[in-house]
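Q: How would the structure tokens look for this protein?
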Amino acid sequence: MAVIGKIKRQYMAHYINAAKPGDPAEYQRLGKDLEEYKVEMNANVETKNNILGETSVILDSYQPQASVEPYYAEVGSALFERLQDIIDERQTLDELVTDVVEVHTWESPTAGKYTAYKEEAIIEVSSYGGDTTGYQIPFNLHYTGARTKGTFDPTTKTFTAGSSGSGE
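A: Here is the predicted structure in token form.
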């Protein structure tokens, strides 16, 4: 059933592929222990004034990124294992590539699947350790722009690309 009126934050679901590069996707929903998760769009905007006193504005790209903080490590979590490997092995470049899926659960599902957008991202572990509340591994996600529209089944945690295969 579709949500009517204002949308509660819980209905914009964010999943991260916690699998190691080359392994089958293993999506884990972000949100546990997070009071906030937002994707900063970081638009590339150029503003110019001409001699006529007119202003032109060109927005030609986005460099989206998001921060997951705090992230508390949990034994048995695929995401924890992925992040710990990044720390232990000081991974760089392609070892940091994953994908994230944004799922519109406020819309009515079709056969249990919701409209979703999958996008490639780079994981940047910003620090590790933390205070007495537990072992923390805050990280950032840098979206690359390789975005695909499709559907996501939260029961099976599978993304299926749309017929066009590209984002809108």
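The chain has a mean pLDDT of 95.

Residues 15 and 29 are 4 Å apart (CA to CA).

Upvote if useful.
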